[in-house]
Amino acid sequence: MSTAERAHLEVSGLTKRFGGLVAVKDMALSVGAGKILGLIGPNGSGKSTVMKLIMGIERPDAGSVRINGVEVAGWPSHRIARMGAGIVFQHSRPLHRQTVLENITLALLPDKLTQLLADPKTDARARAIAARVGLSGVLDRRPATLPFADLRKIEIAKAIARDPQVLLIDEPFAGLTAKETAAFSELICELRDDGRAVLLVDHNVKSVARLVDRVIAMYVGERIAEGSADEVMRNETVRRVYLGGSLETAARPESSFRDTATPFLAVDNVSVHYGKAQALENVSIHVHAGEFVAVVGLNGAGKTTLFNTISGLLPYSGDIRREGSALRGHSAAAIARGGIVQCSEGRDLFVFMSVRENLDLGGQHLSPAARAEQIAGLFDLFPALKERQKQAAGTLSGGEQQMLTIARALMMKPMLLMLDEPTLGLAPVILEQISKALERLRQTTAITVLLAEQNVTFALPHADRVYVLEHARIVWEGEPAKFAAEMGTGYL
Amino acid sequence: MRTFSTARILLVALGVVVLASFLPLWATGYILGLLTLAYYFGVFAMAWDLLFGFAGEVNFGPTFLIGVGAYTAGILDNLYQPPIALCIAAGALAAVTAGVVLALPALRVRGPYFGLTTLVAVLMLQNFVVVDAHLTGGEIGLTVPDVISISDATNYLIALWFMAVSGAILFWLSRSPVGLILQASGQDAVQAGALGFNVTKHKLAAFIISAFFSGLAGALLVFYLGSASVGTLVDITVGVQIIIAAVLGGRRTILGAVLGAVFLIAMSEALRPLGDLSNFVVFAMALVVVLLFPSGFFGLLTRTKEQA
Amino acid sequence: MPFWDCFVASLLAMTADYSSVVGPMLFWQILIDGFAISSLYALGATGFALIFGVSGVLNLSHGALMVAAVVAAWAAGNDLHAGPYAGAALGIAVGFVASLITYFFIVRPLQTTRKIREEEKEIFILTATLLWGIMISELIAYLYTNNAKTVAPIVEGVVSIAGVRTPSNEIFTAVVCWLVIGLLWLLVNRSKAGKAVLAASMNPRGVTLLGVELSQVYIAVWAIYGVLVGVAGVLLGMFLGVSSYSVGPLTASAFSIVVLGGLGSVSGALIAAYVVGYLETITAYLISPAYRTIPALLLLVAVMYVRPHGLLGRR
């Protein structure tokens, strides 16, 4: 039985619900031997869930998954693995107490309780695989001592060891340099050329365009487009989801802000590491009092890390100053009380408390009178919240939750409001409402806003200045009007 | 390659055991008795380390398995007086069965629930022993008519070589491919499943092996002491001491557990002059170790080696 | 939850059955005693659930802290010849201090250390609190022997309820328990600080981002826990008495109740406390006091097989 004859992955009608949330709806795809299919989607689109469903790490609520013609939906993951499927996880997960060689050897072992003697043949095979991926020099080292790229190599080595006919790879190039990415691409092509069926999951088309034969785009759990990489990149729906429609701007020039010498917020050469991966590299931005600044970038670019660093939740090297005085050394809560408030990507609502209670908690530092006034103002800004003020936050729709998150942050009367991807997973109608609210804030108050977004069409009309964050670095800064001209098409 | 090969370590350990076998030539009966106890304790701790260190499951009630093995053997002897070997075999078998019964709900739950399940098991056993006093001797304890031997030296050697063989088997297991799969199951069950390993099957196997050695050692202990009681075999405090011994010696080393056991027993004896306060001091020291040196003896040793 | 409905229905049926079989006197005795015991359990379990819900810690030294409070109250009466009120105050104070010691010297260091991997911290904290509890019980046994101790009750005398002669102390116990639980409810649901604590149990990050120092929330929670444990302990001492042997069973019953009710659900713990309390009382009266902890344990085992998240658990 050669790999070329049998390798095939076919998925249809795949559905998965987590409580009330439909993570994947009616998903269908198929990959044949010697082909690479790209599955693209922003955060929350369900693409990682699809992988987990195929691999049996999650059980589907409905649908079929056929590997090499055999129906495996609902099987436990170890049976699916033995059926010929293999997965390379997005985050490296080696066994920390074992050496590199042992990690690879593990992948070669059969699922038997009687393996009591080490097999020299297995050892030789493990060494050969290590050589193929370039790990021969570090076989006796433990993962904690290795650089990021080597950890990814261990993951690929494990996949090769399993010799799967269907290979699922999740965000293969995240955190890698250009050279490392090229080396990985080559490995993946080799694996494809062996006759395997490969499913590549990533958040943008650009990084995998060269590898894939076809691409399927996902959004909020459903397929929205399929075709060649080029076709999908040009597809209307896809562009709207990622970038929105045409790009309009209404910026105030930087010179109109008075604090040019000492901007309200100055981030200077900040670098942050997440374990081995570099999440931010020498990032410098500044925000003037009263300015609306947008930081745009795709998933994994580092936007959330930047916000968490400013909020004081992560250790960093470099300097962050607020009106000239350093933020380093202050606790996260102190920074928030000081007027720099973040609306996190995950919203962090108190789900069992009512809308009103969430708002009250935001305004706990205010006097009862001031709090009541603030709430009245916010209900004016977001009428939907007023209607639902007694409802538990967890039962609100996505859009209402986002509005509540923003309202709650505004209760703190922040000087700098940081919004992390407010449009994530929301329908266009809700985006309109949030957009209008932001516009009102911009025109009627002196609030400073730092907006991190993937959706450029949403971000640009509100921004006075734009930064582009790509792979942990700032790659562009300028006026929104120039963004379309200089960055627009290359963005996706 | 590992720092030291399995064979080499076992050889060194064998050397130590052989040396220790000569102890009866000049040590007092008192010391031999202490060490005998320590060796059985060491087996308890090694069995626990296999389950925790490898399968990653914290068993708060190792004394459940030990108690089942010990009391089964003891009760059987009291009732029917079959040959000692049969009682011991029955004890081991009972412990394995108990291990399976415990594993089934325990493996379905994660994190704190698992530990709590094991604690509940111990409490139930304790209750059962106290309540069924006519069978088990209740809180006073059970005495068995037979013992393996009256000679201190013989008991010492039996305990020593039992511990040596158990340790060798458990250690070899931990270093074998199966041990590697167990470690993967404990550290990252999702990854292990994705690599094709039936995690539940392996953890259940770890449970059974741990139960077997615990029960066997418990049964042997009954026929050494000539008695069994809740206070020596079932109580939570005994279970905690076993855990401490394993942590002191170094989790995931198997052999370290023996060091921890010997240290703990020696320490309890050394502090005997303090009277009732001795227990307090031992536990206080154990707490200090947990707080400040969580890697235990072996952990300290291996850490300095890796830094060198 | 069909399981829960059936359970309650059969419990009610059993109660009706018993009252006709055992006669009204015994029935009322069980009802009253059971209520008092359950209220005590409820108070202790609420504290245990609070610590778990907010701090994420299953404090296995719970029983030891309670016993420490009782012994302090007893020693005040025995050695210092203090009155029952002073003794009770000392007991509560000891509970308060012991709880904070537990947090600052055992739980927090483990939560913040770099020497242990994150996944293993929970287990170390469980072990450390268990050790700490044993240490306390050994110390008590050393200083004051293993004998049972009772504390002079604040309320003396006997009242007659439905023809049953009941010590007034029992009524007092139940009333105080519910008063404290009520106060706690008010504190958590109506006060600003209390809501911060509740929010912290749902989303610690969210609370930080709103400018509340989590470290202060944790200290507040352990302080409240200390008072709860102190009150529960002193009441227990006045009602039934304790010895250093009570440490284990007290911790066991607290976590059984919290697991039965569902880790993370305080209302679940309250209901479960009454289930366990009544099971124990009924067993003690109708079968034998020696067997009283068994039905509750059996129930716990059954629940863990069938519904590991407990009756009302969220996780």
Account of the protein in words:
The complex is a heterotrimer of chains A (492), B (308) and C (315). With 492 residues, chain A is of the alpha/beta class. Chain A has two domains: 3-242, P-loop containing nucleotide triphosphate hydrolases (Rossmann fold); 254-490, Rossmann fold (3-Layer(aba) Sandwich). Chain A has helices at 3-6, 47-55, 77-82, 100-108, 120-133, 148-162, 178-193, 205-208, 229-234, 236-242, 303-310, 332-337, 355-362, 368-381, 383-387, 398-411, 428-444, 456-459, 480-486; strands at 8-18, 21-32, 35-40, 62-67, 70-71, 85-88, 166-170, 197-202, 214-219, 222-227, 265-274, 277-287, 292-296, 317-322, 325-326, 340-343, 416-420, 448-453, 465-470, 473-478. In chain A, a hairpin with a 2-residue loop joins strand 4 (62-67) and strand 5. Chain A is globular and about 75 Å long. The model of chain A has no long low-confidence stretch (mean pLDDT 87). Chain B has 308 residues and is mainly alpha-helical. Chain B has one domain (6-307). In chain B, helix 2 runs parallel beside helix 7, helix 2 runs antiparallel to helix 10 and helix 4 (84-108) packs across helix 5. Chain C is an all-alpha fold and 315 residues long. Chain C has a domain at 37-243. A two-stranded antiparallel sheet of chain C has the order 1-2. In chain C, helix 6 runs antiparallel to helix 9 (214-239). The chains are: A alpha/beta (492), B mainly alpha (308), C mainly alpha (315). Chains in contact: A-B, A-C, B-C. Chains B and C meet through helix 4, helix 5, helix 12 and helix 14 of B and helix 4, helix 5, helix 10 and helix 12 of C.
How does the SSE layout of this entry go?
The complex is a heterotrimer of chains A (492), B (308) and C (315).
Chain A: H1 3-6, E1 8-18, E2 21-32, E3 35-40, H2 47-55, E4 62-67, E5 70-71, H3 77-82, E6 85-88, H4 100-108, H5 120-133, H6 148-162, E7 166-170, H7 178-193, E8 197-202, H8 205-208, E9 214-219, E10 222-227, H9 229-234, H10 236-242, E11 265-274, E12 277-287, E13 292-296, H11 303-310, E14 317-322, E15 325-326, H12 332-337, E16 340-343, H13 355-362, H14 368-381, H15 383-387, H16 398-411, E17 416-420, H17 428-444, E18 448-453, H18 456-459, E19 465-470, E20 473-478, H19 480-486
Parallel strand pairs in A: 3-8, 3-9, 6-7, 7-8, 13-18, 13-19, 16-17, 17-18
Antiparallel strand pairs in A: 1-2, 1-4, 4-5, 9-10, 11-12, 11-14, 14-15, 19-20
Chain B: H1 6-21, H2 29-54, H3 62-80, H4 84-108, H5 112-131, H6 133-136, E1 142-143, H7 152-175, H8 177-187, H9 189-194, H10 199-225, E2 227-228, H11 230-234, H12 236-249, H13 255-270, H14 277-292, H15 296-307
Antiparallel strand pairs in B: 1-2
Chain C: H1 2-22, H2 24-55, H3 62-78, H4 84-112, H5 118-144, E1 158-161, E2 164-167, H6 168-190, H7 192-202, H8 204-209, H9 214-239, H10 247-261, H11 266-286, H12 294-306
Antiparallel strand pairs in C: 1-2
Helix pairs in contact in C: 1-2, 2-6, 2-9, 2-10, 2-11, 3-4, 3-5, 3-9, 3-10, 4-5, 4-9, 6-7, 6-9, 7-9, 10-11, 10-12
